[in-house]
UniProtKB/TrEMBL annotation:
Membrane topology per record: Multi-pass membrane protein
Entry's transmembrane regions: 15-40, 52-72, 79-101, 148-169, 224-245, 257-281, 288-308, 314-340, 352-372, 378-400
MF-aspect GO terms: transmembrane transporter activity
Stated name of the protein: Major facilitator superfamily protein
The species this protein was found in: Companilactobacillus versmoldensis DSM 14857 = KCTC 3814
Name of a matching Pfam family: MFS_1
Compartment(s): Cell membrane
Domain Major facilitator superfamily (MFS) profile, chain residue ranges per copy: 14-406
PANTHER family found in the cross-reference section: INTEGRAL MEMBRANE EFFLUX PROTEIN-RELATED, MAJOR FACILITATOR SUPERFAMILY ASSOCIATED DOMAIN-CONTAINING PROTEIN
GO CC annotations on file: plasma membrane
UniProt keywords, alphabetically: Cell membrane, Membrane, Transmembrane, Transmembrane helix, Transport
Amino acid sequence: MNTKGFMMSKWRPNIYLFLTGQFLSGVTSMVVQYAIIWYLTKETGSATVLSFATLLGMLPMVFLSPLIGPFVDRTNKKVLLIVPDIVAALVAIVLSVVGMINKDFPIWLIFVSLLIRSIAQTFQMPTIQSIMPTMVPKDQLTKVNGQLGMVQSANMIIAPALGALLFSIVPITLLILLDVVGAIVGVSIILFVQIPENPVIDERMHFLSDVKFGLTKLRQNKGLWRITLMGTVFTLLFMPAMSMYPLMTLSFFHGTVAQAGIVEVVFSVGMLVGGAVIGFLGNWKDRMIPIILSMIVLSIAFIISGFLPGNYTGFLWFTVLNGLAGLSAPFFNTLLMAMIQQSYPSEILGKVLGILNSLMNISGPVGLIFAGPLADKIGVNMLFVISGIGSIFCALFVYFNSATRNYDLELQKKLDN
């Protein structure tokens, strides 16, 4: 297929079909994910359990991303998008059947299911990231990434509200089977999406050399390398607090599952608004400015949240601050990903993204190992304060370091030449 001719003539309806599929399959998967987390929160009320559940969701991204990169560069992209959906559906069926037989779920089985779901998603995310530059013109990449962020935000708006409703009226053993419906819908749509392939599918893979190659390419890019390292620290600080949202609502503010769902919806509405700004107004001359501002806004929202009173008034303010944090969240991830996609040719992008995703996520599990016991000891609200203060220092580093601060300006000069 002539990629250039493909993009010029068919890219818009094709990418919108792809985004539609991501929305329809994603919302069912997220309803199931929220149901599992709320089940754990309601049954255990433990920050340590929630931390461990989130930890299992992140470990595959850390350890498998560098190895998955070579697969992404060489393997048929539709296969990499379809197979994980099928695996997630099979896991849902097994979990549902066991729940029906035992009347509840063994905690260890929930952990295993979360791990397998995460492994499947680890294959999908770098695949989506690597095919985006091949499916849209370069000058539309930032906007389309913003629209993809809008789709993901829309999923997160609908999923918590729908999940809270279904969680209260549908047995969780049946609710989990929504993953099967999502897989059927997602796979059916992907079959009709046209995805240009790189001409290296049959090339033999050399894992260690490919990992070394991706790491070398990333380290050679001084500004992006420092942004990646700072993103690693940023993840170490804010990911533990993010995992505690349900416990913050249910335990600290003494709320209900429905209120926990409202918090998630408000955060996601904020993300949708932020994604809309990027999607429709996203051609900034210097994308590092909104990235730095988003880090500062998120930090301030977390700090204030940690000092709120543990009552209904505090919950209302926590909800408002969540909307503000959600508004800022897409700018960091979406704009950074667009810059990464423009920094490397598509045929090696998978290798670089594998290393980058691993490094950006490696600190999350480290933080979560200590976050659960720490939150149980000092209070989940103080975890938000610690995360916010540390994140402000990350933003200041990015701003005052010339290699990171000027990275996008230098990148735009290279793209214009």
